[in-house]
C-alpha cells in the first residue's frame, strides 16, 4: 500500500480547484492527500504552526504565481529559506507564458513549471509527488 501523502494546492481562483479535482480523479489518487489554499499567506501560517509543533510538512505544493496577500514567488522564497521545508517539491501551475516568470520561479527553487490548463500534464505531475 502506498504511503499517505500531503500535497497543497495554492491558487486564488476557485475554478482551478475544480480543474485540479478532475486531475486527482483522473490520476485515481485519494482526495485526502490534497489540501486547498487560496493564497500563500494561508500556507505560510500552516507551515509556521507545523514548524512550531513539529507537524507534518507536505510532500509537495502546486502553486500559482500571482495571488493576493502573498504571491507564489514570495511563498517559494519563504519555503526555501526554511530547512524543514526545503525538501517539499514545488510545482508552479500558471497561465503565465513569460520566460521571466518561469526563470524567477526556477531561481527561487521551483522544481517544475506547468502551463495550465493541460490536464494530462497536471495528472503526470501529481502522480509523481
What does this structure look like?
The chain is α/β, with parallel strands linked by helices. The chain has a single domain (7-127), classed as Rossmann fold, CATH 3.40.50.2300. It has five helices and five strands. The protein has a five-stranded parallel sheet with strand order 2-1-3-4-5, sandwiched between helices. α1 (14-27) packs across α5 (119-127) and α2 (40-53) packs parallel to α3.
Main features:
single chain; 129 residues; alpha/beta; Rossmann fold; five-stranded parallel sheet; 5 strands; 17% strand; globular
Tell me the layout of helices and strands:
Elements: E1 7-10, H1 14-27, E2 34-37, H2 40-53, E3 60-63, H3 72-80, E4 89-94, H4 99-108, E5 112-115, H5 119-127
Parallel strand pairs: 1-2, 1-3, 3-4, 4-5
Helix pairs in contact: 1-5, 2-3
Summarize this, please?
With 129 residues, the protein is an alpha/beta fold.
Q: Quick one: biggest sheet?
A: 5 strands, parallel
| Number of structurally distinct domains | 1
Total strand segments: 5
CATH topology: Rossmann fold
| Terminal Cα span | 15 Å
Strand content: 15-25%
Unreliable stretches covering 5 or more consecutive residues:
none
Question: How many helix segments?
Answer: 5
Say which CATH homologous superfamily is assigned: Response regulator
Order of helices and strands: EHEHEHEHEH
Oligomer: single chain
Indicate the overall shape: globular
Amino acid at each position: 500500500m502506498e504511503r499517505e501523502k500531503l500535497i497543497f494546492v495554492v491558487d486564488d481562483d476557485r475554478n482551478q480547484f475544480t480543474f485540479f479535482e478532475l486531475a486527482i480523479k483522473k490520476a485515481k489518487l485519494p482526495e485526502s492527500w490534497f489540501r486547498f489554499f487560496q493564497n500563500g499567506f494561508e500556507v505560510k501560517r500552516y507551515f509556521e504552526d507545523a514548524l512550531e509543533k513539529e507537524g507534518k510538512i507536505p510532500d509537495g505544493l502546486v502553486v500559482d504565481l500571482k495571488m493576493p496577500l502573498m504571491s507564489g514567488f514570495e511563498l517559494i522564497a519563504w519555503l526555501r529559506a526554511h530547512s524543514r521545508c526545503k525538501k517539499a517539491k514545488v510545482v508552479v501551475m500558471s497561465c503565465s507564458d513569460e520566460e521571466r516568470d518561469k526563470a524567477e520561479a526556477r531561481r527561487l527553487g521551483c522544481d517544475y513549471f506547468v502551463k495550465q490548463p493541460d490536464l494530462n500534464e497536471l495528472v503526470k505531475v501529481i502522480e509523481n509527488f
